[in-house]
Design brief:
This protein is α/β, with parallel strands linked by helices and 800 residues long. The protein is built from 25 helices and eight strands. Among the domains are: 222 residues; 151 residues; 144 residues, no CATH class.
Length: 800
């Protein structure tokens, strides 16, 4: 006979761990109490309690009918110090990093998945080269080569006087001017390396919990099961639950070394290339073999960088603490040494060398643009191949989300680099217009940048078509919702204005699901127009306003208008980036607004670009997982982790990281959650139906609240199991339609905020606590196969 066991004890203490969403919240706001105490953590991210709840575990009798509330505040990870607003300039790097995580679900396609990662990393590398080339264009070409080489330009810039050829000083020789100007892009590369290394230490160096369950063998979790198969154990472990997912130290270090070396090599090529071309064209004091040797070394260094970027991806199935110390030390060091050698070679005396025209930047920018286009097209082919192998209807654009976002990152990089170059050229040229030949002192930036700027007005005109269609569709949807809203509130005399207001808000909130209708066509048009710009620049060799002369007055005027308008818009875009950064540095409210952008964009680890803004989840997810595991282990109590908006994504990710026996003591409450609406559609390999069903089965119970007026949160769409469904909604919003004796003032439409104000929130939280297991003593037989104490009353499957 089995050994006798004691009768079940009453449920132990219950904890509600609150996690705020985008934009952040103070502990006082989350706990609804001005007196809060930090329990654990630091000034960057911490857990708080009310002052009266600090000793709650010692007085369980006070909390028989309510949980102990705790608040995890992580807003300072993204929008704390003012200097972090300058991360806005790293937006292209952040966007291309998102493309890495947007691949479609794949099963038994390991090589294709690796190819997808390699292609995204190559696109990311091209953005680093593009940014460095733009800095070289400004400092080396426009300032040191063109302006300093023309007395009419250098005489108007006192800070360029010592470089001017008119003064004939030591620095007036072209090679020495280039070597000195190379300090600017070199300093930029060093700054990016420093920020990447520093932010890793400050944000992403938190090691995940050890001792978690071993991982499975497949690249992705199983597809979503049918309702009849809910009793089956999940196949495989979701990627976000793997031990090494939130600790990408080794890959980030390798990519940081490779991108830093690529930046140095780009600067070295800009400096040595001009000197080598001069030595090959004339017989001078410097043998041309030296230039050829340096160029060969640059090509070899570039091949090594490509090998490093392509060779290794992320190690997620285990906690990889190793570092390729030789690689991360010697690769950037060798590239920097080669840059110094190139500077010395260029600075060698060449008395007959005079700068004229412009450096060959057209070829560089054209090769980068074409390379990015080819990579994006191949990435699209790979994405379609993965999608058709495991199609999921809710995935955006048939699995093309990653290529589209990668194209967007390239477009942003092009706008920023072109904007800087054109604005600096206009500033140096004074009243002239570079490239147009009218009173121009300098030749100006590469012709390709003017062609790329000219396609921006065309792109905006094309963008107006789907935007207008969505506007009409939203208006029609709002009209169709009015009758349904009147039926929901059952008003005897409905107010048409109030009904239209609610219907308009609901229809506008649904626009979130229509984002692919805008983003997809825009990126497709950007790819085609970018190819046309490259062809136009190569064929004509002139800016559009000059190239179209002789084709009729109308075409000529349109080309000139597109060129001037596009150039103005490109420059304005870059100025807005700088202005927003400066304003956010001084204004806390603006800093919080920019922080919301980072809350969404920097959730994912830096897997493609090491210079992207840091991933706050690599700090937040281990924080939450450690707190849940530690508290349940010490008290053996029940825990509800309650996440709003982006906090719900952090909460789900932390639950995935818990050991199986801990997940059985945890309930998940999400509200205003973008888990399915945004993450599952755009990141199907990590939040698609397979991973969400696996989470549903592994956590004890889960409840999700949503509103039709919420533009961010939505349903989770999990309807399996005999227990209560995960989703509850749409909740009424507003709770009261019009004026009543109890509510004499009009109730606000809450949308994405204040879910706790709805009585349903307290009901569902209480229901989750009731469904959690009571605390039971251990049986004489020991533990179950997972190492967790055996308990009665739960089969280990989700009831929610």
């Amino acid at each position: 006979m089995p050994p006798a066991t004691q009768a079940p004890q009453s449920p132990g203490p219950a904890l509600e761990l609150l996690v705020h969403g985008v934009g952040g919240a103070t502990p006082q706001e989350m706990l609804d109490d001005p007196r809060t105490v930090r329990i654990t953590g630091d000034a960057t991210a911490a857990i708080y309690r009310r002052a009266e709840d600090t000793d709650a575990e010692q007085h369980p009798e006070r909390y028989r009918d309510r949980p102990i509330p705790e608040a995890y505040c992580w807003s300072n990870l993204t929008s704390g110090k003012g200097s972090r607003a300058l991360w806005l300039l790293l937006l292209p790097f952040m966007v291309v990093n998102l493309a890495h995580w947007m691949r479609p679900t794949a099963r038994s396609r390991t090589r294709t998945v690796r190819l997808y990662g390699v292609l995204v990393r190559l696109v990311a590398l091209s953005l680093t080269v593009l940014l460095t080339a733009a800095a070289c264009e400004v400092a080396l070409d426009l300032a040191a080569w063109q302006c300093a080489g023309v007395p009419d330009c250098s005489n108007q810039r006192s800070w360029l006087g010592f470089l001017s050829t008119a003064q004939g000083g030591w620095w007036s020789q072209p090679g020495r001017r280039l070597a000195l100007a190379a300090l600017v892009p070199t300093a930029l590369v060093v700054l990016l390396w420093f920020l990447s290394n520093r932010t890793w230490s400050a944000y992403e160096s938190q090691r995940p919990l050890t001792g978690t369950d071993p991982d499975d063998d497949g690249p992705d979790p199983a597809p979503a099961p049918s309702p009849a198969a809910t009793g089956a154990a999940p196949v495989g472990r979701p990627a976000l639950g793997r031990p090494g997912f939130w600790y990408g130290r080794r890959l980030v270090a390798r990519l940081r070394a490779a991108h830093t070396a690529a930046g140095f090599l780009t600067v070295a090529a800009s400096v040595a290339g001009a000197a080598a071309r001069h030595d090959r064209s004339v017989a001078g004091p410097v043998p041309d073999i030296l230039g050829r040797l340096i160029e060969a070394a640059l090509v070899l260094g570039g091949l090594v960088v490509l090998w490093v970027v392509c060779r290794r991806g992320r190690s997620e199935r285990r906690l990889d603490n190793r570092l390729d110390r030789a690689l991360i030390t010697y690769l950037p060091g060798a590239a920097l040494a080669l840059l110094v050698l190139a500077a010395v070679y260029a600075a060698w005396p060449r008395p007959d060398w005079a700068s004229s025209g412009a450096l060959p930047g057209d070829l560089v920018f054209s090769v980068i643009t074409l390379g990015q286009g080819v990579l994006v097209v191949v990435l699209a082919v790979v994405s379609l191949s993965l999608y058709h192998r495991t199609p999921e209807p809710r995935t955006v654009m048939f699995g093309l989300g990653g290529p589209v976002v990668a194209m967007l990152a390239c477009a942003l990089g092009g706008v920023m680099s072109g904007g800087v170059s054109q604005r600096v050229a206009d500033w140096l040229d004074g009243p002239g217009t570079p490239g147009m030949g009218r009173s121009s002192v300098i030749e100006g930036p590469p012709v390709l940048l003017s062609w790329q700027a000219s396609v921006i007005p065309v792109l905006l005109v094309l963008l107006a078509v789907p935007a207008l269609l969505l506007l009409v569709r939203t208006w029609l949807a709002a009209r169709a919702l009015e009758s349904r809203i009147d039926q929901e509130y059952e008003e005897e005399r409905p107010d048409p204005a109030r009904t239209r207001q609610i219907a308009r808000i609901q229809a506008t909130a649904a626009l979130t699901d229509s984002a692919p209708w805008i983003l997809g066509p825009v990126c497709g048009a950007t790819l085609l127009l970018g190819a046309a710009a490259v062809c136009g620049a190569w064929v004509s060799g002139e800016v559009p306003g000059i190239a179209m002369k002789g084709n009729g007055a109308f075409i000529e005027s349109v080309a000139q208008a597109a060129q001037s308008t596009g150039s103005w818009m490109v420059g304005l875009g870059f100025i807005l980036f700088v202005t927003w950064g400066r304003r956010a540095y001084r204004d806390a409210s603006a800093r919080r607004t920019i922080g919301i952008l980072w809350d969404v964009g920097t959730f994912w680890p830096r897997a493609a670009h090491p210079f992207a803004p840091p991933c706050y989840a690599e700090r937040a997810v281990p924080d939450l997982a450690s707190r849940m595991s530690g508290w349940t282990g010490l008290t053996r109590g029940r825990l509800v982790i309650s996440g709003h908006s982006q906090g719900s994504v952090l909460a789900a990710s932390a639950v995935w990281q818990l050991p199986a026996h801990t997940r059985m003591r945890v309930a998940l409450l999400t509200y205003g959650s973008p888990i399915e609406r945004l993450y599952a559609r755009w990141f199907p390999a990590y939040f698609g139906p397979g991973p969400l069903h696996a989470l549903h089965r592994s956590v004890h119970c889960w409840r999700n609240l949503w509103r039709a007026t919420d533009p961010i949160g939505g349903r989770v769409r999990l309807d399996e199991g005999p227990g209560p469904e995960v989703d509850r909604g749409p909740l009424k919003d507003p709770l009261v339609y019009g004026r009543t004796p109890e509510h004499p003032l009009p109730e606000a439409v809450l949308g994405h905020s204040d879910y706790q104000a709805d009585p349903v929130f307290a009901q569902e939280r209480a229901a989750l606590l009731e469904r959690l297991d009571p605390v039971l003593p251990r049986q004489a037989g020991g533990e179950d196969g997972s190492g967790a104490p055996r308990t009665h009353g739960s089969s280990g499957k989700s009831s929610g």
